[in-house]
Amino acid sequence: MAMIPRMSSALLAVTLALSVAPAQAVAAAPATPARAAVSAVPAVPAGLAVSGVTNSSVNLSWTQPAGGPRPDHFRVYDGDTVVARNTTTRVTVSGLAMMSRHTFRVTAVTANGTESAAGEPVSVSVYIPGMQPQCPPAGPVRISVLETTSSAVSLSWAGYSAGGYRVTGAGQDIEIGQSQVRLGGLAPGQTYPITVSSWDCRYVPYSSTVTVTTPVGPSLRPGRPVDLAVSARTDSSVDIVWSMPVDGAPVWSYAIYRGTTLIGTTTTLSWRLDKLWRGDQFAVTVAAIGADGAESAHAGPMILAPSPCDDTPPKPEALTASSVSASSVELTWLSRIEAISYTVYDGDQAVATVSVPSARITGLRSGSTHRYAVEADLGECGKTPLSRRVRAMTAPGPGSRPGTPTDVQPVQQWPTSTPFGTIGLRWQAPTGSPVAGYRVYEGAALIGETTDTSLTAVVGAATTHQLTVVSVDAAGNESVQSSGVRVTGFYLPLP
Known about the structure:
Immunoglobulin-like; 4-stranded antiparallel β-sheet; 4 domains
């Protein structure tokens, strides 16, 4: 296989950089906006946590404090590079090389571009799930008693769980995904052993028990509210309803808890949780409160989530189109929302579908004018509106174009036990006009060049790439791109 010489230096360095950073990396950390001194700054995101790790991706989640202006979206940084944007408080950062280490931070951004400071960072190593260092050794759950009244107790705990927690005791048997709970309906002056059980990522069971004694207080308690349900939801709110208890002391009011946090009280049988973020998931319970303050056993926990889709999904923005030759145009854009893929339109015709926010449109006529727009595919949430259109004109040049490579297929590579591996492609030469070489693209990024009908490139181990191949003639004109092929950097799992 013959490789064009410059592939081994500058191009290889670019390829290595792309393989370590996620494919969605789009920009360096921006400077503080000039208007920050006079614009309202959103509150700093808090509680950044890793909620899942695969061999090439990380799930991150965080909370946004209620104070300050409501952000338009969030930016996730890996070091000083923006690697993801989203309009909710969770995101999947993909395209990470296995066995690589990353430090993530999150900022909140308003519609006018004012960005908050970054929250506390979290570092994570990308390994195969269930293997070190992602699988901590089994150990006891460390339980803390946050509050005790004559009829309720709030608990939190620290530990690792792959499958959630089970809380038993004090007449309770609750399965819950969060590491805190409030238990009501307790009798005054009584001692209760309460056990929290969990499993590590090998599903080895472990548990701890705490003993709680309630102080003296009123002995009559309302019964548990019943029929807790969701009555309506939007992308930023959830309405819940319930029915009165069927027994117990008279009810004075109802208390709504998110975990152990009291978020409101009401004398009605409904409540609206607002200022939420689409796709958020959290546990809510409802307790009946007697006239003397006694708290019933809680209805729930019920896992709530606003609508997973934006009522008005943001369209791709900052679209730019640059003519790079008589036959090719390069496009780049930004997305404020997680997308599965992007489709590029020239007028009303779809001309490319890519998985990264850039595209190379090739095989165009010399001196031709094009009007491009982009839409994002959001999966179950449908597609965004089209971005604003931009105009591009190819440079003058000859009218002939080489034929398109055919039968593009991945080539099996040797496995690696390092953060870097290789991917290989082979294809059939086109018939027709002479071909001087070939180029392989991912979006608008040049992955490699060759004069042969195959190519090997360095990528991050376990990372997946959507690649296309073009033919290039002696004048540098590119053919129409081949169909896209998905290839993954082969890796060897560590023992």
